[in-house]
Write a structure and sequence with these properties.
By secondary structure, this protein is of the alpha/beta class. It contains 4 helices and 4 strands; from the N terminus they run αβαβααββ. It has a 4-stranded mixed sheet with strand order 2-1-3-4, sandwiched between helices. One of its GO terms (biological process) is fatty acid biosynthetic process.
Length: 108
């Protein structure tokens, strides 16, 4: 993999994907409580959050504990955040992978 190209792709495409999902849900970036991204690397998480204007304290990350856990990264981080009480009922989560897939979750 070409790390620089992956970074550029992620920072360009992931925010577009999140914004599209939010638009389809009738929401804006300011409506979300948490941003949950594929846990590829911290630089990508930080850059995508910056591009979306989401404060870093609203980005769920477990990279420091596990590194990149591939396809399991979003479910693992979501489970940890829910079990720890970080995510509360009624919170809105924007989740996005690296391959143009995003979803909006209203936590129950």
């Amino acid at each position: 993999m070409n790390g620089k190209e992956v970074f550029r792709f992620a920072v360009r495409v992931v925010p577009q994907s999140v914004e599209y999902a939010l638009q389809n849900a009738g929401l804006t970036v300011s409506s979300i409580d948490w941003l949950l991204l594929h846990q590829a690397n911290q630089r990508i998480l930080d850059a995508v959050a910056k591009r979306l204007e989401v404060p870093l304290e609203r980005v769920i990350s477990n990279l420091a504990n596990y590194g990149n856990t591939s396809a399991a990264s979003i479910p693992l981080a979501l489970d940890e955040a829910a079990r720890s009480g970080q995510i509360q009922p009624g919170h809105t989560i924007a989740a996005a992978g690296l391959t143009r897939g995003s979803l909006i979750i209203r936590w129950g």
